[in-house]
Amino acid sequence: MVYLGIDVGKSHHAAALINSEGNTIATLPSFANTGAGFRKLLRFVSSYVSKEEELSVGIEATGPYWIPLCRWGRKQGWEVTVLNPLKVASLRNYGVRGSKTDRIDAVLVAQALRWEKRPPSEEPSYETLELRHLTRLRSQIIKDRTRISLRLISILDTLFPELLTLFSKPISPSTLAILEVAPTPQKVLALGKENLTAILRKASGGKLGQERAQQIIDAAQRSVGVPSATLEEVIALIVAQIRLLGEQLTTLNRRINDLYARAGLTLDTLPGVGTVLAATFLGEFGDVNRFKGGTQMVAYAGIDPKLRESGSHQGQVRMSKRGSPYLRHAIYLAAQTAARTDDYFQAILQRQLKRGKSKRKALGAVMNRFIHVLYAVWKDNRAYSPLTPS
After folding, report:
1. How far is CA 173 from CA 63, 118, 177, 203, 239, in A?
2. Helix (H) or strand (E) holding 201
3. Are 11 and 27 in contact (CB under 8 A)?
4. Taken in order 360, 137, 84, 273, is the CA torsion positive or negative?
5. Residue 313 pairs with which residues in a beta bridge?
6. DSSP letters along 225-292, please?
7. Which residues have CB under 8 Å from 310's CB, separation 6+?
């Protein structure tokens, strides 16, 4: 058996061949992430591996860069295994020097493949990768919308500070509709009560009308806002951006719902979990069969405790925070809601608080337990049934 380890980069990869005893046969320090580069790798392998020898190929799952190479390698008839980068990192740290180069990492990938004989592939399905892209983009768009909404509020504090105090949600369909046509007190007064009422009724679905329109007009009459043609233009651009981001979120939600429905899973029956969070779990965790139990899933999500003892820092235990921050945030959101709405998770939170744990650490315990319940529901593909508090 000959083992080919490939360290994956954005534009260039490195490769190394080792034999069954773990001795390095040869290394290919660099080949491009192109068709010509892949052919260079094929010539390298052909030079050292005979047709009588069995070849096992390991690729480190770095970002999305491994996908074209993995697909190409399988077309060559190679047995390709996708490895978790954490495994390679642990081998690097095992050495005294802890050196890191592309060539060394390629050797470590090959060694990981040799030591585990036939390790399970960490390769997610194409559908899982699609959900990962969609849910991560959705998360980023929500952050962008929040950031730009805060900027809009800041500008209105100068231009028309009284307006947003009249709405429970500062950035709502009603406020956006008003800002599109009347972003200043002067333009609100020029618009008139009848036109303002019509705008409010349409934007709010009939929930708001003459009373709110009169309140806005009264606020405009006593406003201390400072007129600015430039800020009006900025508001128009920001409102257009918020509208666009909202449309993109609608498109993403529709696509996420469709892909998750095809999976036929019951993750959305868990407390605090809707379709988007369920899809995030699927996209980030991948196949549940990759894990031997909830404990492995906890470690994969970076929720597992990590002891820190050094100098003045004695006995401090914190989350390891390895892996995807998108996954941890999704678990955090689900655990927060579960601790409010589900008796079982609420009991865990209260028990930790009674022991003197901080709210953050108590919620960390809920997150940890939530993943174990998630694993059980997912593994059996059954709907969540409320658990009895212990």
Report:
1. 38, 56, 6, 6, 10
2. helix 193-204
3. no
4. positive
5. 310
6. PPP-HHHHHHHHHHHHHHHHHHHHHHHHHHHHHHHHHHHT--GGGSTT--HHHHHHHHHHH--GGG-S
7. none
Burial call 75-98: b when 16+ CB within 10 Å, e when fewer:
eeebebbbbbbebbbebeeeeeee
- What is the secondary structure of 313-370 as a DSSP string? EEEEEEE---S-HHHHHHHHHHHHHHHHH-HHHHHHHHHHHHTT--HHHHHHHHHHHH
Question: Edge-to-edge, what's the strand order for the sheet holding 79-83?
Answer: 24-32, 12-18, 2-7, 55-60, 79-83
Task: Please name the residues in contact with 246: beta carbons below 8 A apart, sequence gap of 6 or more.
Answer: 145
* 321 band by pLDDT with thresholds 50, 70 and 90: confident
Q: Which residue has the tokens 């849910």?
A: 135
What values do phi and psi take at 246, rounded to 5?
A: -65, -40
Task: Kindly report, residue by residue over 132-165, the tens digit of the pLDDT.
Answer: 999 999 999 999 999 999 999 999 999 999 999 9
CA distance 343 to 60: 42
Task: State how far the Cα of 139 lies from the Cα of 307, in Å rounded to an integer.
Answer: 30
Q: What phi and psi, each to the nearest 5 degrees, are found at residue 385?
A: -110, 130
User: Which tokens hold the place of 23?
Assistant: 């001795």
Q: Is the pTM value of this prediction over 0.85?
A: no
Residue bearing tokens 């930790």: 352
* pLDDT band per the 50, 70, 90 thresholds, residue 347: very high
Tokens of 127: 């559908």
**Token pair belonging to 34:** 């192109």
Query: Whole-angstrom Cα distance, residue 365 to residue 359?
Result: 10
DSSP output for 285-302: H--GGG-SSHHHHHHHHT
192: left (phi over 0), alpha (psi -120 to 50) or beta: left
